[in-house]
């Protein structure tokens, strides 16, 4: 049987099943969907625990033994509940350094295999080890302003057209919401690390006039 624990959260309580040794090298988090709850993962969790891994299986708000007011039974609250479940774990492990390639698609760094291999092997870059706290902060950090509120300066988005790491469609989601004036330039034939032509020429041809225009505006204001 798992070790079960409940703790207060957002006017209700969160139920968490823990399996396996708490000092294991790896912790697996099993997240159920609508209609499920953490204890349903018990057979899978038992197998992972027998292999020496710690397993966390929370009941998300509104399911299993987790209680919550009606406003907390929605997808955004589920994400916050998971963060509340994982935050104590991250405090214990956030200083642990792991290879950056474990949680990034380093093989998508560029369209040039030799350059990608070089970046991946560079101990100052893609071959680096970073604290787990960095990964935790990516899920727990909000922008200072939403795009609809940003009007401080014009924005130039220079985006590789063939970026397999961060596809254009993902960046467009924020760019299209900007309140500030925006200019969007796709760099033809370029991957995430842009080294290809004509994309590099397009980068230069868009960036230099943009910076010069901003500099001129700043001088005029002073």
Describe it.
34% of the residues lie in helices and 19% in strands. By secondary structure, it is an alpha/beta fold. A four-stranded mixed β-sheet has the order 1-2-4-3. It has a two-stranded antiparallel ribbon with strand order 5-6. Helix 2 (75-93) packs antiparallel against helix 4 (132-139). The longest helix has 23 residues, at 199-221. It is extended. The mean pLDDT is 85.
Describe the structure concisely.
The chain is α/β, with parallel strands linked by helices.
Percent of residues in helices: 25-40%
The fraction of residues assigned to DSSP E strands is 15-25%
Secondary-structure element sequence?
EEEHEHEHEHEHEH
What structural class is derived from the secondary structure elements?
Answer: alpha/beta
- Give average pLDDT, whole number: 85
Q: Biggest sheet, open or closed, and with what strands and sense?
A: 4 strands, mixed
End-to-end Cα distance, whole Å, is 70 Å
Number of strands: 8
> What shape does the CA trace take?
extended
Low-confidence stretches: none
**How many helix segments?**
6
Strand order of the largest sheet: 1-2-4-3
- Taking all Cα atoms into account, the compactness measure Rg is 23 Å
């Amino acid at each position: 049987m798992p070790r079960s624990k409940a703790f207060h959260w957002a006017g209700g309580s969160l139920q968490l099943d823990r399996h396996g040794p708490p000092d294991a090298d790896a912790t697996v988090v099993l997240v159920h969907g609508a209609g499920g709850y953490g204890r349903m993962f018990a057979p899978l969790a038992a197998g992972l625990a027998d292999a020496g891994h710690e397993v966390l299986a929370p009941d998300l708000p509104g399911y299993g033994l987790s209680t919550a007011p009606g406003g907390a039974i929605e997808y955004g609250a589920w994400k916050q509940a998971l963060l509340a479940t994982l935050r104590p774990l991250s405090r214990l492990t956030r200083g642990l350094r792991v290879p950056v390639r474990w949680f990034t698609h380093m093989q998508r760094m560029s369209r040039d295999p030799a350059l990608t291999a070089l970046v991946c092997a560079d101990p100052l870059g893609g071959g680096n080890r970073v604290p787990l706290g960095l990964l935790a902060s990516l899920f727990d950090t909000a922008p200072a302003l939403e795009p609809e509120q940003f009007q401080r300066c014009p924005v130039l988005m220079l985006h590789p057209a063939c970026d397999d790491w961060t596809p254009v469609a993902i960046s467009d989601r924020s760019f299209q919401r900007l309140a500030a004036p925006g200019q969007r330039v796709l760099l033809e034939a370029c991957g995430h690390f842009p080294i290809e032509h004509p994309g590099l020429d397009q980068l230069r041809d868009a960036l230099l006039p943009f910076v010069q225009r901003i500099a001129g505006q700043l001088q005029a204001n002073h």
